[in-house]
Amino acid sequence: MNKKIVYVLIFAVFAAAILFSGCLDFDHDHDHDDDHDDDHDHDGHDHDHDDDPDAIILQPLTDAQLRQIDAGERILVAASVAPQTEFIEKVGGDRVVAISMIPIGAGHHYDPTVRQLEELAKAQLYMQLGSGEVFETRHMKTFADINPSMKVVNSSVGINLISGDSHIWTSPKNAQIMVENTYNGLSEIDPANATEYRKNADAYIKELQELDAELQAALDGLQDRNFMVYHPAWGYLARDYQLTQIAVEVDGKEPSPRALTEFINVAKTNNVTVIFVQEQVSVAGATAIAESVGGRVYILDPLAKNYVENTRSVGQALAQHLN
Q: 62-80 pLDDT, tens per residue?
């Protein structure tokens, strides 16, 4: 059989498997206690992370990039989230092309498109978060089957993981470790350019160290060290800068009326006037709490690619609103 036909058939099978697994879920939640009767959320799905197709921004490789990759002029490196692509590009420079398998606007339960899988088949390296990320748990085996020769490197090696929190990149301290792991991965698959990668990594790590010092200075003197978020994406940042993150989201769902009342009381007790949310998730519960305490909702984005600039803005927002 023609190799091109076989290639197309393989991707069709994997794409169908991903779509099928995303549509079927037999793990229904039949717990109808008082809390959940009010919540009307009985199917066990993570509704707050269901992806809005209109919000997802796919950025396919250009024809020029594909030609360079096919010609061996540049190395394609895949990762799970957009901040990682900045780490890859900072270390690899012009020698790499980086892609994020979870596109802008998508969440933990995103299913890659056929086009993304076709691109992934050309990758030489995958920088896995390795922190319990749901997306990786669901899809890494498929990725390995599609591209058996792709090297997979665990970005979380050397990081003290928080159980249930996959957002390791949100702390600049962790980002430095992830960049070092990125250097290790690139130098292994392309040892001829390891010296250049080392120089690039050192320069970027210095930039991250300066960012870390900025955040430490901005957050050190705060008397109020509790902040309320909708989706618990900031656990590593909170831990590394001695803050306490209070999450509104309960197991990936909007809080029930009873839980919402408890969160409002917590907000009042802790003088919380700002609820931090991210664009990728529903914020009805956060809005209700903010309105009840005479506060407001403020957007922080843990998935922005421009890592240093974005994390600096996060630190400034926390310093301003916790002061």
A: 999 999 999 999 999 999 9
